[in-house]
Amino acid sequence: MATREIHTWPSRVLKERAAPVEEFGEELQRLIDDMLETMYAAPGIGLAAPQVGVSRRIMVIDLSSGTEPEQVLILANPEIVETVGEVTSEEGCLSLPEFSLKIRRAESVVVRGYDREGLEVEVRGEDLLARALQHEIDHLDGVLLLDRVNPFRREIVKKKLKKALAPAE
Ligand code: NI
Questions:
Q1: Would you please indicate which residues are annotated as catalytic (active-site) residues?
Q2: Could you confirm whether domain 12-165 is CATH 3.90.45.10?
C-alpha cells in the first residue's frame, strides 16, 4: 500500500466524468488499498478515484476513520436509486482544502453498486453516510462542491482557493 497524491482544484481530472470499472483485478485492488491509505492519512472519511488522478468509478468511505473495519465501504460503479428528504449542511472536500460550504443534499439515499470483488451490493445511508455517498458519487461525475453553490458564492470561493493554493513566494 502507498499513499497517492490528492489532486486539488482546479486539476482537470476532477472535472471529468469517470469511466466505469470493468475489471476487478490486481490493479483495482492496489488502487483501492492506496485510496484507503491516502484517505486515512489525509485524514478524510471519503475518497473517490479521480481525487488520486484515476478517472474510474470507484470510491471509498469510512466514517470511523479506520477504527472500525466493518464501517469500510468500497463501491464501484455506484448509482443512486432512491433519495428521501432534503437537508443542508456544511461539507468539506480534500480536493478543496481548508474550505467548507453549505450544501443541500438528500437526507437518505439507497445506492447500488459493486464491492471490491465485483459482487453487487446495495447500501442504505442516512445523515452523514448519505452525505458522504452523494459527495463521492459527485466526484465520479466530475462535480465538486463548487458546482453546487450559487455562481456568486462560487466566484468568491474560487478567488480564495487561488490564493490559498498559490505557491508561497
Ligand atoms: Ni470531495
A1: 136
A2: yes
Mind spelling out the 3-state secondary structure of 125-164? Answer: EEHHHHHHHHHHHHHHCCCCHHHHCCHHHHHHHHHHHHHH
Question: What's the 8 CA to ligand 1 centre distance in angstroms?
Answer: 9
Residue 91 CA to ligand 1 centre (angstroms): 9
State the distance from the centre of ligand 1 to the C-alpha of 70, rounded, in angstroms: 22
* Ligand 1 centroid from CA 47, angstroms: 6
Higher pLDDT, 65 or 118: 118
Q: Please state, in angstroms and rounded to a whole number, the distance separating the CA atoms of residues 77 and 140.
A: 9
166 pLDDT exceeds 90? Answer: no
Distance of alpha carbon 35 from the chain centroid = 11
Which residues keep their CB under 5 angstroms from ion ligand 1?
93
**Can you give the residue ranges of every domain in the chain?**
12-165
pLDDT at 168: 65
Residues 66-105 have pLDDT tens digits of 899 999 999 999 999 999 999 999 999 999 988 899 999 9
